[in-house]
Structure formats: C-alpha cells, structure tokens
Design a protein that fits this description.
The protein is mostly helical and about 450 residues long. It has 19 helices and two strands. Helix 6 packs antiparallel against helix 10 and helix 9 packs antiparallel against helix 14.
C-alpha cells in the first residue's frame, strides 16, 4: 500500500514548477496582458493595432513545430532554460522604451514596442514547445489533475496580484512613463522564473535523439481523438479571440471605465479563476475532463450573453453587474483551460508526444493569433460604417459592441457540437456531472449541516 502511494506521489522538486509559474505569469501578464493594451491604448493605438499586439505571441508559436525536433536532441530542461533566459532581454527593451523621455513620439513608441514584442514572441515560440512534454513526462497520470489545479491556481493568483498592483500604480501615477516601471517589474520576474525552472527535475533516463526526423504529420492530424480535440479547441478559440480586442475599447469608450477599474476587474477575474482551479483539479481526476468542459462552456456562454445585454443597453452600467459577469467568465475560462490541458495530456500517445503538443499549441496559437487581427479589422470597419447605433427593439440597441458579442455567443454555441464528440472513455457524462453537482452535493451538504440537530429529533 505504501509503495502504491509513493508511486502516485509527486516527484521531488516538482513544486518548483509552481514558483516558476507564479513568477513567469507575473512577467507575461504585465508585458502581454492588460497593462500593455492599456499602454498602447493611451498612446492612441487603434483596435487593429491592439489585435496585432495580441496576435504576435500566438502567431510566432508556430515555430514550435520545427523546434520540436531540436528539443528532442538537446533535452527539455536545457532547451527551455536557454529560451526563457534569452527572451527576458526583450522585456528589458520594452521597459526602456516606455521609460524613454517624452521627446519620442507616440507613433515611434508603438512601432518599437511591437518590434520588441515580435522578437520576444519568436524566442518564446521556439522555447516553449518542450514545457508540456517535460511536465507530462515527470508527473504521474493519476496526479495530473491535482498538478494542473495547483499550477493554474499559481498562475491566476499571480495575475490577480500583478493586476492589483498595476491598478494601484497606474492610478497613483497618471503619466505614460508609469508603465515603464510596470514593465521593469516584468523583467525582474522573468529572471526569477528562470531561477526556479532550473530547479525542476529533468526527465530521468532521457536519451537525446539525433539524426533527421520526419514525423508523420498527416497521420498525427488524422488520429481521431486528437482530431476531435483540435476541432473543439480551435472552433472555440476563433470566437474567444474577439474578447481580447473588444473588451478594452468597450470599457474605455462605452463604459467610460478608468484604467484602474479595468485592471481591478482583471485582478478579480484572476482571483476567481485561481479559486476555481484549486477546487476543480481533484474533481477532474475523479469525473474526467469532458463534464467540466461542458459545465464551463455554459458559464462562458452565459457571461457573454450578459456582456451582450450590457453593450445593448438592457443591463445598466453598474460596477456590481461587472463583477457578477466577471465571476461567470473567470470561473468558466479557468475550468476550460485546466480541463482541456488535462484532456490533451491523456489522449496523446507517448511516441511523438512533443510533436503532438506542438501541433495542438500551434493550431490554437494560430487561431488566437490571426483571429484578433480579423476581429480588430471588423470592429474598426463597423465603426466607420455604423455612424449611429441601429435600434431594432425599444429596449435593445444594436451597435458594433452588441453585434460582436452576438457573433461570439452564436460561435460558442456552434463549438459545443465539437465538444460532444470529444473522446475520454473514463469520464462520466455531462448530465451525470450536473446531477452530482446540483442534486447530490447540495443534499450531502444539508445532511452534514443538520447532523448536530439530529439528537433533538424524536426516534424514527
């Protein structure tokens, strides 16, 4: 029995992955997340420029496919440590640009920041292909849900903390150069993450593969469980990508929200996501990933329906409503991220694992890279065509915000067709999971709460 427990325990040193995730997330959430979008928006960037900014990282993730051959030769750990160290240099470059005296024109700052982000994205796209295969190799299958829940919790807690601090800092100092200090913190966090990633254990018995490798890409894409997984994630991300383009303009231009409120909402969403990730990891190990994906998809769609209603003028612009909607989104997206990653870790074969992960990451990254540009062009084009909102119902106003959100809702509903086709033999059905969640679990909680009062009840 003791041997079985030790076999299922986390390997020594894996906890360093949580610290790495925390500091790495602190770094990229500042340099790639809401602070960067707010900085560019304050410089006068259009929605198309914001879409390009969001698209740079996913687009260059396509470099994972050619890099997959090299990571098999060098080894996961060495490959990733070198890549993470190199990409930190470009974060420092962005901080210097933001701190540069105001004589540098806003247009030139935007161009230089995009150039640095492109270089950062190239190095990141090459180096990240080995991380998931590395973690999959050292974490036992029965513990992957627990690992991912803690790992994801660390990620979202880091995002929440950095957004809160950014919100306070940006509200305290109203100048453009305040963002330079934020990006400098990103650089220091990146260096710290390298320290912890060096402490994660390497794969035992790893043997480098030399020579030219020609993976059977077509057969890998046609592998039925993997093909169904890609169909769902890609179709889902096509419409989720619009959120990165529309949300900041809606909050700044329509809602008239301050940068501090936007960062505060991001922090709150990340806090909700961290709590959700911590609670659902062990649940995924028991019931499977598919039922969690079904439940989480419903929460995400409900959240987007509420955003659509607010942009159409049906829901009032009140802060409490923003937090309610953000709760649905933070919970749903956290569950989807954790469950989909766990599902992929279980369905890809050991042979060619690095290449399967590379294909999945590239397919989703290209989707998240190209679609923000498309959505940004559509959004800017609608702004030029629709000079005045078109009201079709007395209480409902069709404008470019509500139309985009309507398209997102319809697209996410279509993606549920592909979710129903996902393979996971050991998982229970979504209907069984909903029964457990809303009927069995509340009944058990009530019975446990009533336990102290049973001695006052008459016999029988």
């Amino acid at each position: 029995m003791e041997e079985n427990k030790s076999a299922l325990a986390m390997p020594p040193g894996v906890a360093n992955a949580y610290w790495f995730q925390a500091f790495n997330t602190t770094s990229w959430s500042l340099i790639l997340g809401m602070p960067m979008l707010l900085y560019l928006k304050n410089l006068g960037a259009t929605a198309t420029v914001l879409g390009i900014t969001v698209a740079l990282i996913p687009l260059f993730s396509a470099l994972q496919i050619p890099a997959a051959n090299f990571v098999e030769r060098m080894g996961y750990k060495l490959f990733i440590v070198r890549g993470w160290t190199t990409r930190s240099i470009f974060i420092l470059g962005i901080a210097i640009i933001a701190l540069w005296p105001e004589a540098l024109a806003a247009e030139h700052r935007i161009i230089l920041v995009l150039l640095m982000l492109a270089c950062f994205a190239v190095v990141r796209g090459i180096s990240m292909c080995g991380y998931l295969p590395w973690i999959t190799s050292i974490v036992p299958e029965s513990q992957r849900g627990a690992f991912l829940s803690r790992d994801t919790m660390c990620m979202y807690l880091a995002v929440a903390g950095t957004m809160l601090l950014s919100s306070f800092w940006v509200n305290l100092f109203q100048s453009q150069r305040a963002f330079g200090a934020v990006f400098l913190v990103s650089y220091l966090a990146a260096l710290t993450s390298v320290f912890f990633i060096r402490r994660i254990p390497d794969v035992q018995g790893f043997k480098p593969r030399f020579g030219t490798v020609h993976p059977p890409w077509k057969e890998m894409l046609r592998y039925p469980p993997f093909h169904r997984y890609l169909s769902f994630t890609v179709s889902f991300n096509v419409f989720v990508a619009a959120l990165s383009v529309i949300w900041v303009p809606f909050m700044r231009d329509s809602y008239q929200a301050s940068g501090s409120l936007i960062l505060g909402l991001s922090a709150y969403s990340s806090g909700i996501a961290a709590l959700t990730s911590r609670l659902t990891g062990s649940v995924a190990d028991r019931v499977g990933s598919r039922p969690l994906l079904g439940f989480a998809s419903g929460l995400v769609i409900l959240g987007q329906c509420l955003w659509m209603a607010m942009s159409a003028g049906v829901l009032p612009h009140k802060t409490i409503i923003l937090f309610v909607i953000t709760t649905f989104g933070g919970t749903g997206f956290a569950m989807i991220g954790m469950a989909s990653t766990r599902l992929m870790m279980g369905l890809v074969p050991v042979m060619g694992r690095s290449h399967f992960f590379a294909i999945a990451n590239v397919a989703n990254s290209l989707t998240m890279g190209l679609m923000p540009i498309v959505w940004g062009l559509v959004f800017d084009g609608m702004g030029r065509v629709m000079t005045d909102p078109v009201s079709t119902v007395s209480a409902w106003t069709w404008n470019r915000y509500s139309l985009i959100y309507a398209g997102i809702v319809v697209g996410l509903l279509v993606a549920q067709f592909f979710r129903h086709r996902l393979d996971e033999p050991k998982a229970i059905s979504t209907e069984e999971f909903m029964h457990i969640l809303f009927i069995q679990s509340p009944a058990r909680l009530v019975a446990r709460a009533m336990q102290p009062f049973r001695r006052f009840l008459p016999p029988g």
